[in-house]
């Protein structure tokens, strides 16, 4: 199940920033963008960090300085190397020339890479006002942008607002639940000491995509309810899943609500 | 007649000047975005890469995430226990980027700062020097192993970003 979900999300993430179909620009009569688009095909096979890749995108911008895809493509290497200054300069240009296509992406990068919660919220809320369509997913495809917004509010201390946002999202018919949605919602309820609701979401996550984090936070909820033996059992499951690598994971950053081995050891000591 | 000749000479000179100016050069990119060359003024000459410069990777290249012994709790503990908050009204992000070699040793540290509006900002030296010194003291960096080649260990670029609010560290990335 986890594997299937990962494939779905990664595929979505890839598609969401796929090379545009250049013929589309011909179809709408924009020959300059068609030419720029064709130029980007020369980047094929070059690593996003490489000078060859950057130069192709510069050539694209020389052809059409309003081609947002080129700015966003250039920005990726700066994002991943933590160069917030050049990343922001480039992604702002991408947003300027295609706000609907790039606001959500910029927002999720602000959250994921730079913990700029306020900036991410502003971007997502601006995007929501611009479109009646679904606002889409984060840069890595893991979260719906509404969940990103909720995580940002959570990090700013507005837990109840974060809960409301995720609950509203889950209530939407046909919403495809994110692989970590229930964990985050459970943690939010745990932080507000609503233990029964927290437990219910961790149990849902167990059925959906079982991770060490579910059992770890479930153990904390049980401990708070003085159910020590049950909490210990959950910590054993936590250890087992952790050692198998079933944990919240992000290639680039330490994600929200991720647990670490030292946290499990401390929790075990606290229960003994 | 003299005036006409003078005007012609001026125009010609201007035109030639324009022609002789080469077109603006594109940014002189290095091998990869963010590559850090050795600088004898700041870098340790005894720090050795295990492989050539062209083989330095990025910390995320092998899908394992940040490789630090004890992971994020250990990183946070290191700075929490050793960083002395500075009386300052400065807030923003400070990035320290560096190389971890295949033995887990570090050098070629470079700093970049910005304010809350993503504009360049130089942090008080009391903040930046302290963070740089503490980053240099970190001893838990693990070499990135490449599964495909018998777990061969590699040299790679790593960064830490400190989110600072009024001189205090409030978060550490990645």
UniProtKB/TrEMBL annotation, chain A:
Annotated keywords: Signal, TPR repeat
Secretion signal span: 1-18
InterPro entries the UniProt entry points to: TPR-like_helical_dom_sf, TPR_rpt
The TPR repeat ranges on this chain: 179-212
Protein's organism: Marivirga salinarum
Protein name in UniProt: Tetratricopeptide repeat protein
Family matches, as Pfam families: TPR_8 (PF13181)
SUPFAM superfamilies in the cross-refs: TPR-like
Transit peptide as UniProt keyword: no
Coiled-coil spans in chain: none
Automatic annotation (TrEMBL), chain B:
Tree of life domain: Bacteria
Protein name according to UniProt: Uncharacterized protein
Upper classification of the organism: Bacteria, Pseudomonadati, Bacteroidota, Cytophagia, Cytophagales
């Amino acid at each position: 199940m986890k594997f299937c979900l990962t494939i779905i999300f990664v595929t979505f993430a890839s598609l969401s920033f796929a090379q545009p179909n250049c013929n589309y620009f011909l179809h709408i009569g924009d020959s300059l963008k068609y030419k720029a688009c064709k130029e980007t095909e020369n980047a094929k096979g070059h690593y996003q960090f490489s000078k060859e890749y950057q130069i192709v995108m510069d050539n694209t911008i020389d052809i059409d300085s309003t081609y947002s895809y080129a700015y966003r493509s250039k920005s990726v290497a700066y994002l991943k190397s933590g160069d917030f200054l050049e990343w922001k300069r480039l992604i702002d240009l991408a947003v300027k020339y295609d706000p609907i296509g790039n606001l959500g992406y910029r927002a999720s990068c602000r959250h994921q890479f730079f913990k700029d919660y306020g900036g991410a919220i502003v971007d997502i809320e601006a995007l929501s006002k611009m479109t009646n369509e679904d606002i889409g997913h984060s840069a890595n495809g893991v979260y719906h942008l509404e969940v990103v917004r909720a995580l940002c509010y959570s990090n700013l201390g507005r837990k109840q607002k974060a809960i409301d946002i995720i609950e509203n999202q889950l209530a939407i018919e046909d919403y495809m639940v994110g692989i970590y949605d229930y964990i985050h919602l459970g943690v939010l309820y745990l932080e507000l000491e609503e233990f029964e609701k927290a437990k219910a979401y961790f149990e849902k996550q167990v059925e959906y995509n079982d991770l060490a984090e579910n059992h770890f936070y479930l153990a904390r909820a049980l401990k708070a309810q003085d159910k020590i033996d049950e909490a210990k059992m959950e910590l054993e499951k936590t250890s087992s899943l952790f050692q198998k690598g079933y944990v919240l994971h992000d290639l680039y950053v330490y994600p929200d609500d991720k647990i670490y081995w030292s946290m499990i050891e401390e929790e075990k000591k606290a229960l003994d | 007649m003299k005036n006409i000749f003078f005007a012609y000479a001026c125009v010609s000179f201007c035109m030639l000047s324009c022609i002789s100016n080469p077109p603006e050069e594109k940014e002189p990119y290095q091998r990869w975005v963010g590559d850090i060359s050795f600088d004898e003024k700041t870098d340790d000459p005894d720090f050795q890469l295990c492989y050539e410069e062209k083989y330095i990777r990025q910390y995320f290249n092998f899908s394992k995430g940040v490789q630090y012994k004890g992971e994020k709790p250990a990183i946070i503990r290191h700075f929490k226990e050793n960083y002395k908050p500075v009386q300052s009204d400065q807030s923003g992000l400070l990035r320290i980027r560096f190389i971890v070699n295949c033995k887990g040793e570090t050098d070629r540290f470079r700093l970049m700062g910005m304010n809350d509006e993503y504009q360049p900002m130089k942090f008080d030296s009391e903040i930046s020097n302290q963070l740089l010194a503490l980053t240099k003291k970190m001893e838990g960096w693990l070499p990135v192993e490449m599964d495909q080649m018998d777990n061969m260990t590699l040299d790679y670029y790593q960064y830490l970003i400190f989110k600072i609010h009024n001189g205090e560290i409030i978060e550490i990335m990645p």
